[in-house]
Description:
Blueprint: H1 8-28, H2 30-52, H3 56-69, H4 80-97, H5 100-120, H6 125-150, E1 154-156, E2 160-164, H7 165-181, H8 183-186, H9 190-218, H10 233-237, H11 243-252
Antiparallel strand pairs: 1-2
Helix pairs in contact: 1-2, 2-3, 2-5, 3-4, 4-5, 5-6, 5-11, 6-7, 6-9, 7-9
Amino acid sequence: MTFSSLSPLAQRLVGFATLVPIIVLVWFDAKIASLIVWLAFILMGLEFSRLVDLAKPFTFIVLVLFAFVGMPLWLMVIDTRLILAVITAMMVLLMWQKSFPLAVFVGLTSLCGVSAQVIINNQNGQYMLLAVCAVVAACDIAAFFVGRRVGGPKLAPSISPNKTVSGAIAGVLAAGILYFIFAGMFGLTSVVAFGFGCIIGCLAQLGDLFESSVKRQMGVKDSGRLIPGHGGLLDRFDGYLLTLPIVALVFFI
């Protein structure tokens, strides 16, 4: 039996199993968590460069950008204004070379890198980051299963033909319920936690749709093949494009 012969669910489970050791490392040490995030952003820079087929000089610039924005704050020796300048320059470069949606995508991804490190840099921040990851994953899983089981009207057929309205609603509710469970960790009342979780569920799916539109524009299905059954890192990161900056803004900035 080959990996490609497995069902979509089995492929996703295999992909998740490969991430378990990383989750354990993040849980036990904040500095290791920040280094893992940094490495992930460098790898995402490589994926993005291949995705948009950038020339070699621009590929190097993209890698430098992603290395900057994903850098652990405890290693940061440069002014944050320089990082913002680099991000802005990269967005302008992409608008000139490729398209406006790609520039926005890089801008959002860059904000995610900074936001992830801001979250980790706080006390017990790695637990907060894992909680957000769990909420986004719950949203994705609920949307996947309910969408396949219930079906119904398509959410955005021109962007992502497999997504359904029923799946989207299930994803939002799953995110709200899990945030409700994590209410104490976030210092929120149960009602506020559920409402904020539903907002996170909406934002996660909007990020997913936005990346799908960018990939459709580039004529590709997956950004890479690093994670079995899940595609590349960018494919798994779409749900965090809007959620991580919002969480960092609400709780830590």
